[in-house]
Amino acid sequence: MENHGIVHHRTLQHKCKHKVHIAIILVVALIACACGGVWWTVGDGRLLTMQLFKPAAKSATHSAVDSSSDFAYRSATAFLQMNPSQNAQGNVNYSPASMWMALALAAQGADGETRSQMEKALGTQSLNTADYQSLLSSINGRYSGSQSQMSTANSVWVDNRYTLNEDFKTTVETVFDADVQSLPLNDAAAQRMSRWINQHTQGSLEPRITLQSNEVISIINTVVADGRWQDPFEPELTDRQTFHGTNGDHEVPMMHQTFHGLVWAHDSNSTWQRISIPFDNGGALTVLLPAAGSFDDIIQDTEKLRWALSTCLGSSYQYGCMTDAPEGWGVAAEPALVNVGLPRFTIDSTFASDDTTEALKKLGISDVFAPDTADLSKMTDSADSGLFIGSIIQGTRIEVNEQGAKAAAFTQAGAEAAGAPAQQQVVEFTADRPFLYMLTTPDDVPLFIGAVRNL
Predict the structure, then answer these.
(1) Same domain (yes/no): 152, 168
(2) DSSP secondary structure code for residue 55 in this structure
(3) Which residues contact 27 (CB under 8 A, 6 or more apart)?
(4) What is the domain count for the chain?
(5) Are residue 199 and residue 216 in the same domain, yes or no?
(6) How far apart are CA 254 and CA 267, in angstroms?
(7) Which of 193, 369, 381, 399 is a good FRET partner for 43, with 20 to 30 A between their CA atoms?
(8) Do residues 193 and 308 both lie within one domain?
(9) Do the strands 239-245 and 248-267 form a parallel or antiparallel pair, or are they unpaired?
C-alpha cells in the first residue's frame, strides 16, 4: 500500500501563509479465524503470553458504544458500495471502528466549525475521557478463559520542525494512549511507520509508506481482531459447494457446523436472515444473508442496513425477540438449532483517499479537508501554518476458516431458559450467495463490516 501525495506545504498567496496536509493513515488487520500451521502452533503460545500481561477488560460505556456503533452503520453503506483496490471481485472489508478512532483523535486538535462537524458526524459531542478509555479497555483488555485477541493502537508522528500543542499532546497520550513520535519525516521515518504498523498488527501487515519532503503530521490507527470460534468448524466436514456470486458460479470450500441454541433472526418479508457465530471472548461474527435480489437494496439504504444488522442483536432471548416496524421491516429472533454452511474466504481491501473523503463529506465532515476552511489550530503551536486533512487511507484484511479455540467463556443467552420451546426449530443457513458480515466486540461494537459478492 503506497501513501502518495499525503502531506506537503501549499502556498496560498492571498493569505501569505502555508497550508499543510495532515495524513490520517488507517491500517487495519483482521484475522477472524486465521489459518496456517505456524500461526496455529507457534502463534498460540505468543498470544497466550500476551494475554497474561493485559489488564482485565472492562465494558465500554453506553455512550461510547452508541457513538461508535451509530457511526459504523451510517458510514458502512458508502464503503460497502466502493470498489477498493486489490479486490477485483467486489468484496469489501471496512473497519468503522478504526475510522472513528482516528478521526476522533484528530478532532482533539480541531476548533470552531471544523470540530463541530467532526463531533456531530462521530457522535462524540458528549464523550469524556472515561468514555474513550472504556472503549480502549473493552478492545485491548483480557477476557478470562479466552484465546481470542482484540487490540487497537494509535500513534502521532510529527516532523521535529513543528511542536505539538501541549494540550493536544497530553490528550492524545492520556485519553487515546497514543504513541507520539517527533522526528524528521523522511524515508527513515516512513520505514519506522511501516514497522510500527507491522508490530501493532501482530505481523499481519507491513505497508510501504512513502512520505513527501514537506510532510508534517501523520496519525496512524490499527485495529486487530483475532477471533477464535467458541465451537470451531470441523475441517473434515468442509466440502466443495457452488457459490452463486454476482460474477457467476464458482466452486468454493464450504465449512459446516451445527449450532444448538444459535440465535436466528429474520425479517417479516423474508428478505434477509441472520446469525451471530460466537467467539470465545463473547464477541461474534454476524452473518447477514439477503434473499436473492435483495443484496443491493440493503447495502444502498443506511436505515435498512442498520435495521438488518443490529435489530435484536445482543438481546436476551429467553422469550424470543419480536419488534414492530414499518411494513416488511419487522424482525423475529429466537434460539434455534442451526445447520450453518459458511465459505472460507479472504478479503484484502485498500480504500482510495478520494473515495473515503467523499464518503465522509456526505456524513457532514467537509471543512477539515479544505485548506481555506479547516481549523486544526489546536494541533500545533505554529502560528503561521494551517493544517487540513489531505488524505485518509485504510487498508484491511480478513481471513475466515475452520480454526478456533475451544473455551467456555461465551454462552448464548437463553438457549435453555425457562419459557423456550420444548423442541427447537431447525434452520438451514447456507451462505452460498452474496452476504454481509459484521465482527463485533463483546459490547456489540462493530469493528469490521464487510460484503462478500464473489468467491
Answers:
(1) yes
(2) P
(3) 1, 197, 201, 205, 207, 220, 221, 222, 393, 394, 395
(4) 2
(5) yes
(6) 25
(7) 193
(8) no
(9) antiparallel
Rounded CA-CA distance 342/65 in Å is 28
Q: Which whole-number Å values give the CA distances from 388 to 86, 108, 139, 168, in the listed order?
A: 28, 13, 29, 16
Q: CB burial class (10 A; 0-12, 13-18, 19+) of residue 428?
A: exposed
d(CA 340, CA 418): 25
Check if the beta carbon of residue 420 is closer than 8 Å to that of residue 53.
no
> Do 330 and 188 reside in the same domain of the chain?
no
Q: Which domain holds residue 95?
A: 9-228+346-399
In this structure, the answer to whether residues 246 and 182 fall within a common structural domain is no
Q: What is the pLDDT of residues 242-280, one digit of tens each?
A: 999 999 999 999 999 999 889 999 988 889 999 999 998
Residue-wise pLDDT tens digits, 303-325: 999 999 998 886 544 445 666 66
Mode of pairing for the β-strands spanning 248-267 and 29-31: unpaired
Instruction: Please indicate, yes or no, whether residues 285 and 249 belong to a single structural domain of this protein.
Output: yes
Residue 289 phi, psi dihedral angles, 5° rounding: -110, 100
Give the CATH number of the domain where residue 69 resides. 3.30.497.10
**CATH assignment at residue 301:** 2.30.39.10
